């Protein structure tokens, strides 16, 4: 007999998810929306919560895991206030996105050689190399949270960093230069 303790979500999260699931013809159809709700609550989809989603919707954990790893908007670990995604697929790569990624990491004190998302120690920025952002005609492309940035170059990348700092920390002395 297993003595494993299952993750128990906060009652308000469970009620929100229950209300959401009730709007779909079958629980499994709600999976992406439930994932958004869980991520909004935790800032990511932790492993325990992933298993809870699967149990709740009567699907296998691998089905949820596949979605978490396929869609760039889902995260398995918390990300910074500003999540900057740099496209590394062909059109963007040909127009210098790898060099821009290196430049961005240098500016933020991150290691461009590390695979996967990296977050600055103050939790302000996460930088991640991702596949096509569906803006190949205006390469190189980046996203910062939900906003798309096109035809990026070093100057625009520096501006983006400054905009983020101004938006959230208007009185901050620059910690990332
Ligand atoms: S290749 Fe970069 S947006 Fe498509």
Proportion of residues in helical segments: 40-55%
User: From the structure provided, what is the oligomeric state, counting identical versus distinct chains?
Assistant: single chain
Distance between the termini: 56 Å
| Spatial arrangement of strands, main beta sheet | 2-3-1-4-5
Level-2 CATH architecture of the largest domain: 3-Layer(aba) Sandwich
User: Largest beta sheet, briefly?
Assistant: 5 strands, mixed
Q: What's the overall geometry? A: elongated
Average pLDDT:
91
Q: Which hetero ligands occur in this complex? A: FE2/S2 (inorganic) cluster
CATH superfamily of the largest domain: Glutaredoxin
Number of strands: 5
Provide the number of structural domains.
Answer: 2
Structural class by sheet pairing and helices: alpha+beta
Order of helices and strands: HHHHEHHEEEEH
CATH class of the largest domain: Alpha Beta
- The count of helical stretches stands at 7
**What low-confidence regions span 5 or more consecutive residues with pLDDT below 50?**
none
């Amino acid at each position: 007999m297993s003595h494993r303790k299952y993750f128990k979500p906060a009652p308000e999260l469970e009620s929100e998810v229950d209300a959401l699931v009730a709007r779909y013809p079958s629980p499994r159809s709600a999976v992406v929306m439930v994932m958004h709700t869980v991520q909004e609550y935790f800032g990511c989809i932790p492993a325990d919560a992933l298993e809870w989603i699967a149990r709740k919707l009567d699907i296998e954990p691998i089905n949820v895991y596949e979605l978490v790893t396929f869609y760039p908007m889902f995260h398995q670990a918390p990300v910074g206030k500003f999540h900057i995604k740099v496209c590394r697929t062909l059109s963007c790569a040909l127009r210098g996105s790898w060099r821009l990624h290196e430049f961005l990491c240098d500016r933020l004190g991150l290691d461009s050689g590390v695979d996967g998302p990296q977050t600055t120690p103050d939790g302000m920025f996460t930088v991640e190399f991702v596949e096509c952002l569906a803006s190949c005609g205006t390469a190189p492309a980046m996203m910062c949270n939900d906003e798309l940035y096109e035809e990026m170059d070093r100057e625009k990348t520096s501006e983006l960093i400054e905009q983020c700092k101004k938006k959230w920390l208007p009185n901050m002395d620059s910690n990332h230069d």
